[in-house]
Write a structure and sequence with these properties.
Elements lengths: L3 H32 L5 H50 L2 H6 L2 H43 L1 H49 L1 H7 L2 H54 L7 H11 L1 H4 L2 H5 L1 H16 L17 E9 L10 E5 L4 E5 L6 H8 L4 E8 L2 E2 L5 H7 E4 L10 H6 L7 H10 L3 H6 L17 H13 L5 E5 L7 H14 L4 E6 L9 E3 L5
Parallel strand pairs: 3-8, 3-9, 6-7, 7-8
Antiparallel strand pairs: 1-2, 1-4, 4-5
Helix pairs in contact: 1-2, 1-4, 1-8, 2-4, 2-11, 4-5, 4-8, 4-11, 5-7, 5-11, 7-8, 15-17
């Protein structure tokens, strides 16, 4: 809402620019007509200066409208992107994973670009066109009111038909194209991921056929849009040239009767060219109105799907005590039969949650971290996790989930994700704690080495130690570590765990593991209900 005045001001600048075009056409038409009578040169000076003024002013105001309009739309796009990212952060991880990647990519990129066309290509030009039409018809009204009313009627009828055909008839086609583009993105992603399997099992032709079918659907829809746009342009041209013809026919008797000066015939007749000019810029954007509507629905779906935190409470800084009563994590997209858990973990204590795969250990960890919904009660320092402010949860804990994501970037950038303010000494201390320092020092690019897509340049154990290095870069009162020593041999895991105990000394620690961890007395075994 704060950006609406910026958009209105941009539309006003655009309207002035188009009005300058109206003035330029009126002044130049009068100048040419008057010059044919060979008057004294001083009689033409005002018109000559007006032509220069309107010609230069049109470019200046058009440039100002572009700068101000694009500044406003970039601000709006930035605010929308932030809202989407925040909403995605609040979504349950499984619900985001369940979304098709093509659709998610569309929501993060294409949807935002398409939605902003509503302002930059429809509303701003539409308001500008209305201002210019008002200015042009006003000039005709000043010269001959009757003709101006006829031109106004033709303009309104033409504008209504153009909007109805471009936006109304094309809405369904453009929305279908938008959906097919998302489907094509999914097919491309699936084809790329399954390329090797397709070659081995020889089903590449079937994949190509699916891509061709999806592409043909999009092409067919685009042809329909082009056809509708052609119809809109035909109506626009008919309205414009019709108003020119009608203006000429109505102006001639007035000139004969002496009600209109002959030198103004060209002004009255040619002004519709500028009056209708603003409508031409709306034909193509209005044809994509269905895309804009579909994109807005996609964005609203993401924004409205975020879990709302009711009555946010502040988590007191310092130590953290956890109490769980019949607690288990709940996924929206899966009906999992997780076992309810009861425990009380005092501040500064370490506990291992142990149990077989699929029993709900990781889901409980996600629930404690506030990442998914849960049943029962989970309290941190006596406050329900669902009621705690998100920023307080992030500040109070370090969470290392199983197979935490490593970005296709350098080792340094991946470690900086844990603590952007970490010094070089702190980073190398963390690498030494997980015994990666010597390996990284031996690499040609050292800590700036790229880990590759999905960490392909390193082994599973090395990638796991990078994830653990992130833990050593954070100092918080609560740590939740899900299978922290996976892919590591026993001796290495013991050494790293000893250093981890020193690093987390005084903090509350929950370790999720499928087996016992030596050196931890408090081990809670989650077993299936009998």
């Amino acid at each position: 809402m704060k950006l609406i005045p910026r958009f209105i001001f941009a539309a006003l600048l655009g309207g002035i620019s188009l009005s300058m075009a109206v003035g330029l056409l009126a002044a130049s038409s009068w100048l040419i007509s008057m010059a044919s009578t060979q008057p004294p040169i001083l009689t033409l000076q005002v018109a000559v200066v007006s032509v220069r003024f309107f010609g230069l002013g049109r470019g200046v105001f058009r440039y100002a409208e572009r700068i101000y309009g694009h500044d406003a739309i970039l601000r709006a796009a930035t605010a929308l992107q932030l809202s989407i990212y925040k909403a995605l952060l609040k979504r349950e991880p499984m619900s985001s994973q369940a979304m098709r990647q093509g659709k998610l990519l569309q929501q993060l990129t294409a949807d935002i670009e398409v939605v902003q066309d509503r302002w930059i290509r429809i509303l701003i030009p539409g308001i500008s066109a209305g201002i210019a039409a008002w200015a042009g018809i006003g000039v005709i009204y000043w010269l001959t009111p009757n003709i101006s009313l006829v031109v106004l009627a033709i303009y309104l009828i033409t504008a209504a038909l153009v909007i109805f055909i471009s936006a109304g008839f094309s809405k369904k086609h453009s929305a279908t194209i938008f959906e097919n583009e998302a489907g094509l993105a999914d097919l491309i992603a699936d084809t790329s991921r399954g390329h090797l399997e397709a070659r081995i099992y020889n089903y590449q032709p079937a994949l190509r056929a699916s891509l061709e079918v999806a592409e043909k659907r999009i092409i067919w829809g685009e042809k329909q849009l082009i056809s509708n746009a052609g119809g809109s342009n035909s109506i626009l041209l008919a309205g414009m040239y019709g108003s020119i013809l009608v203006s000429f026919i109505l102006a001639v008797p007035k000139i004969v009767a002496g009600d209109l000066a002959g030198i103004n015939l060209a002004v009255v007749t040619l002004l519709p060219l500028a009056i209708f000019d603003g409508l031409a810029a709306l034909v193509a954007p209005l044809a994509n109105f269905g895309k804009i509507d579909a994109a807005q629905k996609n964005i609203d779906e993401v924004l409205n799907s975020a879990r709302e935190v009711k009555s946010p409470a502040t988590l007191e800084p310092g130590t953290v005590m956890i109490k769980a009563v019949s607690a288990r994590g709940v996924w929206q997209t899966k009906n999992l039969t997780h076992i309810p858990v009861n425990f009380t973990l005092k501040a500064g204590e370490v506990m291992v949650l142990q149990g077989e795969s699929g029993i709900g250990k990781s889901s409980l960890a996600l629930a404690i971290a506030g990442l998914i919904n849960y049943e029962g009660s989970i309290r941190l320092n006596g406050v329900e996790v669902s009621d705690i402010k998100e920023e307080d949860l992030r500040t109070a804990m370090t969470v290392s989930l199983q197979d935490d994501h490593l970005f296709a970037s350098s080792i340094l950038e991946n470690l900086k994700m844990a603590n952007p303010e970490a010094s070089e000494e702190e980073i190398f201390a963390a690498l030494k704690a997980v015994e990666l320092d010597e390996l990284i020092e031996s690499l040609p690019e050292k800590i700036d080495t790229h880990i590759g897509a999905f960490g392909k340049n390193f082994s599973g154990g090395e990638l796991q130690r990078m994830r653990l290095a992130r833990v050593f870069l954070r100092k918080t009162p609560l740590y939740i570590l899900d299978e922290p020593f996976e892919h590591l041999d026993n001796e290495l895991a013991v050494r790293i765990f000893q250093r981890l105990q020193q690093h987390t000394s005084g903090a509350t620690v929950i370790i999720i593991s499928h087996e016992k961890i030596a050196g931890v007395e408090n081990q809670l075994l989650i077993t299936p209900a009998i």
